[in-house]
Design a protein that fits this description.
Layout: H1 9-19, E1 22-23, H2 29-32, E2 47-52, E3 55-59, E4 71-76, E5 79-84, E6 87-91, E7 93-94, E8 115-117, E9 122-124, H3 146-149, H4 160-174, E10 178-182, H5 192-207, E11 210-214, H6 222-230, E12 234-240, H7 244-250, H8 252-257, H9 260-274, E13 279-285, H10 290-302, E14 306-311, H11 328-345, H12 377-401
Parallel strand pairs: 1-4, 9-10, 10-11, 11-12, 12-13, 13-14
Antiparallel strand pairs: 2-3, 2-7, 4-5, 5-6, 8-9
Helix pairs in contact: 4-5, 5-6, 10-11
This protein binds iron/sulfur cluster.
Length: 403
């Protein structure tokens, strides 16, 4: 792989996740950037930006480690530029605040409190705060900031019509293609998917957009069959850590009330049901050994699922705010393997149109870490063809739907 961050934007995205970035006084983020909304993205807290036309990122700038970063953002002649020490590395396009954030729904709710842009898609967290934050003592995942944010920047309960209006506004302004529904943990007797169903039905019916669902594993597997019938396109599960000891230490609520086996069984079930590449196992790299992260990636691939890999970020206010972020060298083999397993197992990655994610390196962005892309050229070509075909199909289907 190309090790020069000036020639490898994927490596730059990774380095910025791990090292953060300082902000020079020439910058004017208040006017030029989207506000830093620490809503339900448990690891999200940074500057939303684009490194290239199709590489979105969320750069840590507030955390302690970012204040010592070799990277610094400067504004010169109206253009934002990333420097590493004194070396000019790359331009950075800041994502301005979406205009719809300031609009209100018919019920009077501010749209920024209903849904949040995370790259090119909108994330909706329709339900009350994750139950692990409400337990006494708290059982929240120790890296998570979710319970710190509710109320201040986000409505705790959202109506179906509020959500539909916000999705339509985001589609109109930003041409989004993907809506991601997410819940945290509930009481064991409550049913995650039942709670989401009215939102999913309404958004699918009214917009026809691609829908992803991320919840803890539902206790009734047949519910996933129903999701598929409703037209849900993607499901994902945040197991977070593969090493059982680290899982227990970092995710005490998940260990006690869900456990790893249920995650793995549900990923396998859904992958069989939805098909290769339509299910993701989500892990956080940097809180266990790189070998454990790679074992997780290989496990998911063995059942046809992709991996979504977040880089651990010691977000301010969380239990782990004083932990160091991971080292870039440790992360490179993880992200390389994330893509290699897709190529080796014929698992489609990066097929959906216009789905670019700021908070993670997507499976297909692992291409930046391949040592010898030539070796995989046929597999890479097939992925690109699938992307073009699916994009054309999606566009045609939406055109029919909206006449
Ligand atoms: S399950 Fe863990 S990571 Fe997810 S919202 Fe709850 S505490 Fe946060």
């Amino acid at each position: 792989m190309e090790r020069d961050v000036r020639k490898n934007p994927g490596l730059l995205k990774l380095e910025l996740y791990c090292l953060g970035m300082r902000i020079d006084e020439s910058c004017n983020l208040d006017d030029d950037a989207s506000p830093i909304l620490r809503t339900r993205g448990g690891l999200g807290s940074g500057l939303e930006a684009m490194l290239t036309d199709d590489l979105y990122t969320n750069i840590p700038i507030m955390e302690n480690f970012a204040k010592k970063s070799p990277y610094i953002l400067k504004k010169e002649d109206g253009v934002y530029l990333i420097y590493k020490e004194n070396l000019k590395v790359a331009p950075l396009k800041l994502l301005p605040e979406p205009k719809f954030y300031d609009q209100r729904t018919s019920s009077g709710k501010l749209m920024s409190r209903i849904g949040v842009m995370q790259g090119t898609y909108i994330g909706i967290y329709p339900t009350k705060v994750c139950g692990f934050w409400e337990m006494e003592p708290k059982k929240n995942c120790r890296f998570c900031s979710v319970g710190l944010n509710i109320g201040a920047q986000e409505e705790e309960e959202k109506g179906v019509s509020d959500v539909v209006e916000v999705v339509k506004a985001a589609r109109k302004e930003l041409n989004i293609t993907f809506v991601h529904f997410n819940t945290g943990y509930y009481h064991p007797d409550e049913n995650y998917l039942d709670v989401l169903l009215p939102y999913i039905k309404a958004v699918k019916k009214e917009t026809g957009l691609l829908i992803g669902v991320q919840t803890p594993p539902d206790k009734e597997m047949q519910k996933y069959d129903m999701l598929k019938k409703l037209g849900v396109n993607h499901v994902s599960f945040c197991i977070e850590l593969y090493d059982p000891e680290r899982f227990a230490e970092v995710c005490p609520g998940k260990k006690e009330h869900i456990n790893q086996e249920r995650y793995l069984d549900t990923i396998a079930y859904c992958s069989e049901l939805f098909g290769k590449g339509r299910v993701a196992g989500e892990i956080i790299a940097g809180l266990e050994s790189p070998e454990a992260s790679i074992t997780a990636i290989e496990h998911f691939a063995s059942v046809g699922a992709v991996s979504t890999v977040c880089v651990f970020r010691p977000t301010i206010g969380t239990d782990m705010e004083d932990y160091p972020p991971p080292k870039v060298e440790d992360m490179i083999p993880v992200f390389r393997r994330m893509y290699e397993v897709c190529l080796e197992n014929g698992i489609p990655a990066g097929v959906a149109p216009n789905v670019k994610v700021s908070l993670v390196l997507l499976p297909d962005e692992g291409i930046y870490f391949l040592d010898d892309p030539q070796k995989h050229r046929l597999g890479i070509f097939k992925m690109k063809m699938l992307h073009h075909l699916f994009s054309a199909y999606f566009k045609t289907r939406l055109a029919f739907k909206h006449g």
